Structure formats: C-alpha cells, structure tokens
Amino acid sequence: MTIGVKKVARPEKMSFGESLYLLEIMKGLAVTMGHFLHNIAHNKDIPTIEYPEVRRTMPARFRGCHRLMKRPDGSPRCVACYMCATACPAKCITIVAGESPDPAVEKYPVRFDIDMLRCVFCGQCVEACPCDAIRMDTGWHTPPEDTREKLIYMIDKLLEK
Amino acid sequence: MELILFMLFGAIAVGGAIMVVTRRHPMASALYLILTLFAVAALFALRQAHFLAAIQVIVYAGAVVVLFIFVIMLVNVPENKLPMERVTGMRLLGVVAAGLLILESAVLARKFAMPAGSTADAGSVQAVGRALFTDYLLAFEITSVLLLSAVIGAIAMAKKKI
Amino acid sequence: MTPVFDIAVAVARVAVFFAFVFGLVVIMTWVERKGAAYMQDRRGPNRARILGLTLGGVFHPLADALKFLFKEDFIPDGAHRLFYQLAPMFALAPAIMTMAVVPFGPPVTIAGKTIALQIADLNVGILYLFAVSGMAVYGVVLAGWSSNSKYPLLGGLRSSAQMISYEVSMGLSVMGIIMVFQSVRLSEIALGQGALLFGFLPKWGVFVQPLGFVLFLTALYAEANRTPFDLPEGESEIVAGYHLEYASFKFSMFMMAEYIHMVVGAAVVATMFFGGWQFPYLADKGFVLPGGFSVAVPAAAVLILRIGSFVGKTFFFCWLYVWIRWTIPRFRYDQVMRLGWKVMLPLSLLNIFVTGLVLLYIDKGGF
Ligand code: SF4
Ligand code: SF4
Hints:
- The structure holds three protein chains of three kinds.
- By secondary structure, chain A is α+β, with helices and mostly antiparallel strands.
- Chain A has helices spanning 16-19, 22-41, 83-87, 124-128, 155-160; strands at residues 67-68, 93-99, 107-115, 134-135, 152-153.
- In chain A, a hairpin with a 7-residue loop joins strand 2 and strand 3 (107-115).
- Chain B is mainly α.
- Chain B folds into two domains: 2-79 and 88-123, Four Helix Bundle (Hemerythrin (Met), subunit A), CATH 1.20.120; 124-162.
- Chain B has helices at residues 2-22, 26-46, 50-75, 89-111, 125-133, 137-158.
- Chain B starts with a helix and ends with a helix.
- Chain C has one domain (76-363).
- In chain C, the strands form three sheets. In chain C, strands 1-2 form a two-stranded antiparallel sheet. A two-stranded antiparallel ribbon of chain C has the order 3-4. A two-stranded antiparallel sheet of chain C has the order 5-6.
- The longest helix of chain C is centred in the first third of the chain and has 38 residues, at 2-39.
- Chain C is globular and about 70 Å long.
- The chains are: A alpha+beta, B mainly alpha, C mainly alpha.
- Chains in contact: A-C, B-C.
- The B-C interface holds B 27, 31, 34, 50-51, 53-55, 57-58, 61-63, 66-67, 69-70, 72-74, 76, 124-125 and C 80, 83, 122-124, 127-128, 130-132, 134-135, 137-138, 141-142, 144-146, 153, 156-157, 160-161, 163-164, 167, 171, 184.
- The site of one iron/sulfur cluster has 14 residues of chain A, from helix 4.
- Residues 87-90, 92-93, 114, 119-125 of chain A line the site of one iron/sulfur cluster.
C-alpha cells in the first residue's frame, strides 16, 4: 500500500461573523450551558457509574482475571502440561509440575503463578489449555495492590476464585 | 512621621540600589531593582504624587523589570558560569566620583527652594493630566515622537526584512 | 471614641471583604470542578462527606486544604532555594492586595459618620489595581525560573511575555470608562453608573463602552492566566507550567492566588462595567422606573439590595470564568501574541479615539 497524503478540507475563508469570534464563542457557551442545565435537571442521565457502590455488568466474553478450575473432588483440574505457559506471549505463567498422588492423574501443578503485571489479557492461555483448566471469566479487573509481589497470583488465589 | 517614612524609604531605595550593582546573580539584582523602584514610588506617594507613584510601579516594576527578567531567563546562565567581578582601582575611583556627583547635586538642589508642601490635589491624575496637556504640551509631544522613533528603530534593527 | 470607632470600622471592612473574597475562593474551587463535570456530562466531586452528608461535594475544598497542609513540603535538588520559596509569596501577596480598592456597597451612615464600603478609596483607584496586579507576574516568573526545570521555565517565559502584552490593552481598554465617568476612583465610577442613559437604560459601563468591556474582559482572562489564555500552565503541552515543581502548601498558594485574581477580577468587571453595587432603577429612596413610576423602599432594604447586587454580579463573573474555561480551547502561542498586539491594541486605541470624539460632541451640545 502506498502512503498518500490525505488533504483535510478546511473552509477557505471564515465568514465575517466567524472571524469576529465573539458570536461563535456565544454559540459555544450556549452549548456548554445546555449540557450543564440538562445534567442538573436530569441528574440520573449522567452516564457516570458510581464505581464501588454500582458495578458495571461485564459482557459474557469479557476477559478478566484468571481462575483455575477444580475437579469435583476439589483438586485442580490442571495437569501441568505447560501448554498455557508456552502459548503465553507475555511469558508470565510459571508452572512447576509434580507427581500426582492420584494414580489416575499423571501430573499436577505444585506451583502455578501468573504475574498479573505482565499479563496482557490476551486469552491465549485459555485457548491453549487442553482440559479447560484455566478460564478468564471472573469478571474482575486486576485490583490494585501496594507491592509488586501481591500482584503475582499464586495457585491458591487462582483456585479460590 | 513623614520624615521617618522618608528616611525609611530613602534608606530602602539606596540600599536596594547598592545591592543591585553588587549582587553577583542577575536575578537577585533584578529583584533588588524592584525593591528600589517600589521605595522610590513610596517616596513619590509621600510627596502626594500618587499618580506618579502608581505609574512608576506600573511601568517600571510592572513592565520594564519584567523584560529584564525575561532576558535573564532566556539567557539563563548557570550559576557556576557567571563571570567573577573584581574590585579594581578604576571601579573604586568610579564609586568615589559618583559619590562626589551626588554630593554636588545635593548642594545644588538646596539652592532651589523645595516646592512648598504640595496640596493633596497637585499629584492627582487630573492635575498631572492638565499640566501635561497645557503647560508641557510641547515637551510631551516631543517625547512621544522620540519614543516613536525609538520603537521604529528597534523594529528596523531587529528585522532584517520588513 | 472617634479613633477607636475609625479603627473598628477599618478592621471590620478588611475582615468582611477578606471573608467575602476567601469564601468565594473556596466556593469557586468547588464550582469549577462541579461545573466542569456537569458541562462534560460527568458527576464531579461527590465523595468527601461529613457525618454522612456529601451535599454535592461541597466539602471537597476542605478536604483539599487538609491534604495540602499535610503533604510533604518538597524543594527540588537543583532549585534556587531562596527564590523558590519566595515565589509563592510573590504570587499570593499582590493577589490579596488587589482587593483593597473595590467598593462593595454605597457609602453608609452609621452614628453620624459616612463610611465607604471599600477598604481604601485611593485617589489613583484603577491605577493601583494595575500596579499591584502587574506584580503578580513576578511570582510566576520566579517560580518558573527558580525551579531549575524545563517546563516551568517555559511557563515563566510565556507568562512574562503574555502579561506584558495584555497589560497594555488592559490599561487602554479602561481608558474609555475613565473618560466617560471622569474619574479613576472605582467608588466614583460605581456612583456614576446610577444615572440613566437616554432615560431608560442604566448608565452601566457595558452600555457606554461595549467594545471596552469585551477588550477588558479578554485582557483580564489573559492576565489571570485563565483559559483560553492559560499558556503559562498549559497542562497538555508544558505539564503544569510554572508551578510544576511545587507541592503541598506552596502549590496551594499559587492556586489561591489564581482564584483570588479571578474573584477580584470579577468584582472589578462588575464594578466598572456593570454598575458595581448599583441595582437597576434603584435610587436612594426607592425604585424609580422609566416612565415616572416610583416605588418607595426602606433604606435598609436599599442597602441590602445594593450589596446583594454587587455580590450577585461578582458571582456571575466568577462563574463566567468557569463557563468560558470549559467552552473555549487554549490558543496557540502565536495566536495569543497576534491577538494581543494586532487586534486588541489597535481596537483599544480606536475605542479611546471614538470615545473622545463622542464626548467632545456631547460637550459641544450634541445629543
Ligand atoms: S492472558 Fe495471555 S498474557 Fe495473560 S497469562 Fe494468558 S496467555 Fe499469558
Ligand atoms: S494448559 Fe491447562 S492443563 Fe496445561 S498447564 Fe496450563 S492450565 Fe494446566
């Protein structure tokens, strides 16, 4: 594709009224005053969401904070296959696999950390997982914390969501 | 009371003026210059010349020194690159000469009678305006022509192509 | 008895006007934030609460003040310590001084003495105002220079150039008013606006000097560094300009200076162009309507109406600052300079010229 220059059509000359500015300023003042009065009269129409008290409902496919799924017996569904860690473009998932005590299951994650400061919320980990063990459907933004360490989510935290 | 105030503001004016020439940092000099101008304005006000006092502050403290400071800021020489001023024989001589000049003019000024305690009105806007546009009209007009030519000259020098 | 009375009156006047201006400053910080919010379809500050009451966020100025008081008083490393600390004082002191000459009511008579409702009725009036408000630029310039940082320096430079440019047109634009009312005293100008023009229009400054009013208002905005002339601050280009390196109470001193400038500026516009304390068609004894009607009003009510009219006008012009701020975007720097020197200056000279001609014509018996 060649790069072209787009010409923005500007009015060639301002009309006399426009070049006086004052009339245009009055019009602008009327607009802002209109908004002001309308918002005072129809206070409910202001789209602001009063956040801590009122929460916006997230769309069903919103990618929020991660959670790890559990089996019916409460153990993590994850089999520590490293698919998600491999797929992750931000390289923010750290998994340490361990031998599972359950003979039916080969491995389980001893450690499963997600560095939420590096995560770009792309959803690749969810796509990659072969056993639907990781999901991003909590509907949560990452809540703020006061240290970096608290934003590296350990397995306990991910499981309890 | 008036004498005390006169002494006070006079001392401030002279002290400020000395500081203006002795400070090493141009910004400090400029600030002392404002102080001096204010003190002089106060002296004017003491002589009932309120209009003159106000104009002094508006024009000199409000505009001229702002331009000085503008230039100081624009050039903005770091503190350690400021030139060292040294006391030389020539400069000391200059101070002595200036002192003699001041003394001389003081003696001369005493020969002329001080204007008797001016009335409250003599320095008002109306009085000054009337004097300016009747008795001193010629001087006033000549001054304005002079200023005009200075303005044109400044523009001519600053702009290569007009 | 007499000196005690005089001193008491003087102190009372200062106290009342001080309280008025500072009260308005506090209210304005809230009005500005809330007004901005409503004009932009937001809700604005509504969280600070006392005893569970928020009252639309009116407690926010209080919270702000507390916050400023308890913040760390910080001086940047490379700053010039003395000038850095002097700058907020240079900014605040002239702002406070300007309020001295604004009359907030007609002279009243108490115990057989006539008392002007004005802190000081100087006979240089408006000139004092210009002289003192011209000093305000030093606070800005010193702050910009002494912070030893690029953005504040740019802000200081812009401010000094802008203030000088607009001071000229500001001074010239009120010349017309001075010529019409034959006085530089604000008290006499306010008094002169009680007359009627052509028998029905109040002889307010804006009706005799419409061009002067527009020019003065524009110059006032430029002098007070308010949008569209807030280039010395210009959040989006030089971050915050001259007070970028200031924190805690020093910053709030700059803030206060700006708001006091606004409030006093509004009071001055109201006084010079909108009759000050004059209430339309209200004479000393009562309403005198065009067409010969008159309604008697008790003296106390007249006084209250007049002071109320001054307060109302001042408040309107304070509001106008906010209103304009959220309507007009900032000018570019060359536009500011062009407007100042190539538009405002010639227009204000023209205004003086035309005013002079008309006055001469009236003097010679015209109209
Ligand atoms: S959402 Fe993307 S970046 Fe975040 S952990 Fe999953 S794969 Fe990595
Ligand atoms: S892809 Fe799924 S199963 Fe494999 S490690 Fe990640 S979360 Fe566990």
